[in-house]
Design goal:
alpha/beta, six-stranded mixed sheet, 11 helices, 38% helix, 13% strand
């Protein structure tokens, strides 16, 4: 767990502003002081996979006037934090059906033949939920059976291009059009007679991933679609990619990963959404001859050292301005 990111998230909710200068301990002190002055508060930490130190984060021990609630799939986390466990059971098939109707609406059944298909889908989702309940947790935080189920979904895609597109979603690019643009530029979408045809193919791939429950779709401003990958699926994708991917997006990095973290096998790097990130001018050029994609969007990087791309012969794009522009290492640009 990234303590710095968690501290930043809490600070944004309680009106504290951090600058570049505070270290982890200072941030923890600022949070602790502000929270201690509140007579009552409820804090919810969602989807924890490991024990966290409340003191290190800056969260006071819960008192009569405050509550700390956390959600986790791991009973070990509950035990280590001394929590009172409230087990949330999976929905029954009937409850799952009621929730489906609540979200989708009954009007959909005006279409002939839809109801039996919908019931079948709800039943399958409920069965999948039962299957991935943690049984035997492995060192990386989720159990072998869970990983096998998710790996099976990946294998069922069969088409290597579709699988590559799926893995690229783990880089934290969440705006649908931007993702498809990335696929087109990288050559993951086959070259066609026009750019529009290539984008149409990209949308078809996106819909395949959504229909296979590997991505979730949300509507954003202006009806733009945002696609998100569940943490478990992201972990699986990064596990499959192994040393080929380096993803440190949204982790409040202040300095670009050291050259030692780069490897000859790296193909994709995402350090986007780290707005305080800087690249030291004295940094040695990373040696990543297989790197095709470098995502730096939403980082407010002021400058990049001369010769930074020297050993990136395979680089097809580096993505600097979030969802705005694709920049190639030779300085040429392609508008989105």
């Amino acid at each position: 767990m990234c303590i710095a990111k968690l501290q930043k998230d809490i600070a944004s909710k309680i009106g504290i502003k951090f600058s570049r200068d505070e270290d982890e301990t200072t941030r923890a002190g600022m949070l602790f002081e502000t929270l201690s002055q509140k007579s009552r508060f409820v804090m919810i930490l969602d989807d924890l996979w490991e024990k966290v130190s409340l003191e290190r984060i800056g969260i006071p021990e819960p008192s009569n006037g405050s509550k700390l609630v956390l959600t986790t799939r791991s009973s070990d986390v509950c035990r280590q934090l001394g929590c009172r466990v409230i087990k949330v059971k999976s929905l029954t098939e009937e409850d799952a059906w009621k929730l489906f109707l609540e979200k989708v609406g009954r009007d959909i059944f005006n279409i002939l033949g839809v109801e039996p298909i919908a019931r079948s889908i709800v039943k399958r989702v409920q069965e999948c939920t039962e299957r991935i309940k943690p049984q035997k947790k492995s060192a990386n935080g989720f159990n072998d059976e869970m990983f096998q189920q998710l790996q099976f979904s990946y294998d069922r895609l069969k088409d290597p291009a579709l699988q590559h597109c799926f893995l690229s979603c783990a880089l934290y690019q969440e705006e649908e059009e931007g993702l498809i643009q990335l696929w087109v530029v990288e050559g993951l979408v086959e070259e066609m007679e026009s750019k529009q045809a290539e984008f149409d193919k990209g949308y078809a791939i996106m819909n395949r991933l959504v229909s296979n429950c590997l991505l979730e779709v949300f509507t954003h401003f202006g009806n733009a679609r945002i696609v998100k990958m569940h943490d478990l699926i992201r972990y699986t994708a990064l596990h499959i990619a192994e040393s080929r991917f380096l993803v440190k997006a949204g982790t409040m990095l202040e300095k670009a990963p050291d050259v030692q973290e780069c490897s000859m096998n790296l193909e994709k790097v995402s350090i986007m959404k780290n707005r305080w990130l800087y690249i030291p001018l004295e940094m040695s050029p990373p040696k990543c001859p297989r790197l095709t994609t470098l995502l730096l969007s939403d980082c407010d990087i002021a400058s990049i050292p001369k010769g930074f791309f020297k050993h990136m012969d395979a680089l097809k794009l580096w993505y600097k301005e979030y969802s705005k522009r694709l920049l190639r290492p030779n300085g040429c640009t392609q508008d989105s």
